[in-house]
């Protein structure tokens, strides 16, 4: 009986350990409009412990990430992004955080967005 309990414990521990991937690729949408946004978004994502790679694509607004799931999760990354003023689908930056971005980065302003499309 004791051996059976030990074997079950080891199997449970092993399955929990392997349930999380060391390097998981993921993408998320993050609002922004320019090169300065790109730098800010990537820096914020890379500042989260467990994020190994971050690349934000300006036209598609897609942030590509490689993360260590044992150290972080998508919500921690999204929280870091909204803290520097960039919206995600699930979380929105506060007005205070949004107002700290440079005038050319005001992605909520249609006039600014259109000016980036014509350049």
Q: State mean pLDDT (0 to 100 scale).
A: 89
Task: Give a count of the beta strands, DSSP E runs of length 2 or more.
Answer: 3
Number of helices: 5
Strand content: 15-25%
Q: State the secondary-structure class.
A: alpha+beta
Task: List low-pLDDT spans.
Answer: none
Question: How many angstroms does the end-to-end distance come to?
Answer: 73 Å
Q: What's the arrangement of strands in the largest beta sheet?
A: 1-3-2
DSSP helix fraction: 40-55%
Question: What spatial form do the alpha-carbon principal axes imply?
Answer: elongated
* Main sheet makeup: 3 strands, antiparallel
Radius of gyration: 19 Å
The arrangement of helices and strands along the chain is: HEHEEHHH
Write a brief caption for the model:
With 119 residues, the chain is α+β, with helices and mostly antiparallel strands. The chain has five helices and three strands; from the N terminus they run H-E-H-E-E-H-H-H. Strand 2 and strand 3 form a beta hairpin.
Characteristics:
alpha+beta, 3 strands, 119 residues, three-stranded antiparallel β-sheet, 16% strand, single chain
Explain the overall architecture.
With 119 residues, this protein is of the alpha+beta class. The protein has 5 helices and 3 strands. The protein has helices at 2-19, 35-46, 74-83, 95-99, 110-118; strands at 24-29, 51-57, 62-67. The chain has a 3-stranded antiparallel β-sheet with strand order 1-3-2, covered by helices on one side. A hairpin with a 4-residue loop joins strand 2 and strand 3 (62-67). The longest helix is centred in the first third of the chain and has 18 residues, at 2-19. The chain is elongated and about 70 Å long. The model has no long low-confidence stretch (mean pLDDT 89).
């Amino acid at each position: 009986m004791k051996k059976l309990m030990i074997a079950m414990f080891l199997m449970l521990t092993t399955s929990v350990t392997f349930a999380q991937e060391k390097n998981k690729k993921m993408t998320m949408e993050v609002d922004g409009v320019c090169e300065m946004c790109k730098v800010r978004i990537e820096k914020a994502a890379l500042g989260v412990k467990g994020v190994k790679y971050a690349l934000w694509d300006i036209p598609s607004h897609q942030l590509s990430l490689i993360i260590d799931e044992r150290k972080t999760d998508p919500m921690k990354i999204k929280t870091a992004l909204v803290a520097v003023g960039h919206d995600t689908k699930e979380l929105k930056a506060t007005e205070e955080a949004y107002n700290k971005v440079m005038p050319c980065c005001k992605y909520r302003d249609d006039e600014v967005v259109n000016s980036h499309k014509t350049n």
